Amino acid sequence: MNSYLICTCHWCHVMAKESFQDNEVAEILNKYFISVKVDREERPDVDSIYMKVCQSITGSGGWPLTIIMTPEQKPFFAGTYFPKNNVGEALGLIAILEYIQKAWKDNKAQLLKEGDSLLDIINTLNKNSSGELSQDILKKAFLEFKQNFDTLYGGFGGYPKFPSAHNLLFLLRYFHKTKDAFALEMVEKTLESMYRGGMYDHIGYGFSRYSVDRKWLIPHFEKMLYDNALIAMAYLETFQVTGNKKYAKVAEEIFEYVLRDMTSKEGGFYSAEDADSEGEEGKFYMWSQEEIKDILGQEQGSKFCCYFNVTSQGNFRGKNIPNLIGNSILEEDVQFIKNCREKLFKYREKRVHPHKDDKILTSWNGLMIAAMALAGRVLNNSKYTLAAKKSVDFIYKNLIRKDGRLLARYREGDSSFLGYADDYAFLIWGLIELYETTYNPEYLKNALELNQNFLEIFWDSENGGFFLYGKDSEKLIIRPKEIYDGPTPCGNSAAALNLLRLSYLATSYEFEDKVKQLFENFADEIESSPISCSFSLVALLFSKYPVRQIIISAGENINEARKVLDMINKKYSPFTVSVLYSHLNKELKNICPSIEQYIAIRGKVTVYVCENFTCKEPITNMDLLKEVLSSDS
């Protein structure tokens, strides 16, 4: 028999300590089972398949995911966390292993039969039916978000509360098109509450993975790269929509954390930081009131504690998680808080740090590349653009084979695992954002080449959509194809948006047919729970409304062109794509031959604004351009 433990979470560490580092458990496992511990971030294909198994058997899922299967990979037992010994009527791991070993010996045929039956169920669940999305699916999703919205503290549903920033990205676009003010209100309330709560690290910056309570006060202290990338995008886009600089400031603080603590010397971004240090969850991040007053002095310490709700009793296990719930920093105290934070940060740096997961994952790097590139153009800060470029350079040096095949994970000089759908989709996303920030045709060329590779290896030619793993990968008991978003957008959703954007950037309109097939393939699943597929609805919005193409033909007036680009980038224009053609990037015509027809009239920077395959009169007057851009896009 095989026993699989699929994990990367707090309870995985608990189970590892209680059971897998225990001699008594190890003796049973080694005698009767072949044990395999799977990192679900390295093998999302394995995780996806056997999570479906667990949900089918138990009605729920989670991690650590414990699976027991036959040597042919057919599972017959599944569960999540098990204590070592029995607790009340609940069986512990030892009792479960002994029971299964006896059943395997005495009634093996029945277990094999159960494994076959379960595999039939999983194969049935894995089949996508074809259909069409209803006309009101976008409104239906909005109303579901509205119904689930926590009007007091923001976020959706009960607790634990996850940031799920892709939900906010959908609501921002929905607001942009419908002007329904409540869509924006949900976004702003959520972002404001997340920042004020303890889920945000007010001393060292960056967001933890989720909050265990309704107020966003007490986090699961683990910090994930993907969360911080997606959350930063939500703050940046909300800054564009509202013009409120507080959202830009939070995004800048997230990037300060990532560049300081989560970036390798070579430019790749690390995966995560653990919740625990010195065997205690959150110890690194918590403070006593006395400790803060000792560091800052009585007067300043008291003032800081008042702002950040730090009390003698504490708000978590007798200590304090600094937070701004119910408080706002006065303008005259901004510098005071900055000085206090710096002193506390220096002091905290001397503590034992949580373990850093220094895996460099292609998929999560793709998300942070997208976030950094977006920040580079929205905030007009080349530091972020450079960080995005360096990560792309790292991936092309270490995680793409000579034949163009993308790999999933790099660590300590070792590049492993054939890339999955998310690796392709998120990296292509990052390359598109980097192109629209730098207008270097190389990034558009790379995005198109990767996209072609992605289609060749992952596309379901019979039904449409992308499989989770490629046709050249290890064959598992099923080949899943998914549309539901998890903590990150689903690979199919991100791929759909990529295909649409590339179709307009490179005038490859055949990509739109692929997107149509993809939506038809997943229609039933999207209809059944639209808020679980919010990023696919981001792509659907892009496909349903007229897309504006802006072609800037600059000739040799690149500095004048930059003024035009600044004008474009200040606006929130999620249904606009822009291309720059100048003497510095003439190779763009090799990617998009039609670009040569867009000439710089009389040597002036000339802007062509096109919608529905029709271009307006070329614009050389910047005041007129400003007027055109101010119309809805």
How would you describe this structure in keywords?
single chain, 633 residues, alpha+beta, Glutaredoxin, Glycosyltransferase, 4 domains, 4-stranded mixed β-sheet, 50% helix, globular, disordered N terminus, Thioredoxin-like_sf, Spermatogenesis-associated protein 20-like TRX domain-containing protein, 6-hairpin_glycosidase_sf, 6hp_glycosidase-like_sf
Q: State the separation between the terminal residues, measured CA to CA.
A: 58 Å
Secondary-structure arrangement, i.e. CATH architecture of the largest domain? Alpha/alpha barrel
In terms of structural class, how would the helical and strand content be classed?
alpha+beta
Percentage of helical residues?
40-55%
Strand residues, percent: 5-15%
Q: Could you tell me the radius of gyration in angstroms?
A: 26 Å
CATH class of the largest domain equals Mainly Alpha
What sort of overall outline do the alpha carbons produce when their principal axes are compared? globular
Strand count: 18
What is the domain total for the residues?
A: 4
